[in-house]
Design brief:
Nucleoside Triphosphate Pyrophosphohydrolase, single chain, three-stranded antiparallel beta sheet, mainly beta, 281 residues
């Protein structure tokens, strides 16, 4: 064990200084550092860097001590998503402090001036697996990340639209293709990066399509010729694999599963994730 790490959740700030670049526990499947009075239990995954020093957690008066979370066999209890830090209030512009509000278990950014709590929630990506006979429509990305690689037409859901409406819009924007939604296909969660993908099966209204502003090219690929070694995102790889399996089985299902991204892996790394908790019907 490389060192003891404690995170103070109330009172004076606790400052951690250590010359090593990070703390690692490479030979333990999960390590829990016992909670002391006024300190919160921390979880570390195998070989995980927790954080680079120095780390300063600010004092907070509107907090309560919390009990350590229940043990679990899933990685959701081991790994924690760390979103972008909210330093200033979007309502009044005042500075924030990161505390655990009464009745909650997570650190939140709380405005020191107006007291508003800034909640950070996962993003939703919507898109289509567009089919024509035994082919699927893929777009070659013209933007980062994964410039030049192939993906399904998909993007962030906008306020004021349904998931299906957003999927149709994204397909038009990326492939200038008019489609009709046939059925839900897959919900893929990626907790580490705070994303959920909702994908629909859809059909082309016509064979007229062309690259949109975010695409270098668009093409229909036979299900046996999908370039899996050039796919942009792990979520797209999983979705296409599930689609090919369903197509060859002669029945399409609705799928749900979780992608655990390996820390430090690129979006297109074929070994950078594991797919678990797959449910289909």
């Amino acid at each position: 064990m490389a060192g003891l790490v404690l995170a103070r959740v109330c009172g004076v700030p606790f400052v951690l200084m250590h010359p090593a670049p990070c703390f690692r526990m490479p030979n333990m499947s999960m390590s829990r550092l016992s909670a002391l009075s006024g300190f919160q239990t921390l979880f570390i995954g195998p070989g995980q860097c927790m954080f680079p020093p120095p780390v300063v957690l600010p004092p907070c008066t509107s907090v309560q001590s919390v009990s350590p979370p229940a043990e679990s066999t899933t990685s959701t209890s081991i790994y924690r998503v760390i979103g972008p830090k909210v330093s200033f209030c979007s309502k009044c512009g005042g500075p924030t402090e990161h505390c655990i509000p009464d009745g909650e278990e997570r650190l939140r950014a709380i405005c020191k001036s107006c007291g508003i709590v800034h909640y950070q929630n996962p993003k939703m990506v919507v898109g289509c697996v567009v089919a024509h006979e035994d082919k699927v429509l893929l777009c070659r990305r013209s933007i980062e990340p994964s410039y030049g690689l192939w993906t399904l037409p998909a993007g962030y859901l906008e306020l004021g639209e349904s998931a299906a409406e957003g999927a149709v819009r994204e397909t038009w924007e990326e492939a200038i293709a008019a489609v009709d939604i046939e059925a839900p296909f897959a919900l893929l969660d990626i907790p580490r990066i705070g994303l959920s993908y909702i994908l629909f099966r859809a059909k082309l209204r016509t064979l007229d399509f062309s690259p949109g502003i975010e695409s270098l090219d668009c093409a229909l690929f036979h299900i046996d010729d999908i370039p899996f070694d050039q796919v942009a995102f792990s979520s797209v790889t999983v979705a296409l694999q599930l689609y090919v399996e369903d197509y060859k089985a002669g029945r399409f299902k609705v799928h749900h599963g979780v992608l655990d991204k390996r820390m430090g892996s690129s979006p297109s790394d074929p070994s950078g994730y594991t797919f678990r908790d797959h449910i289909s019907n």
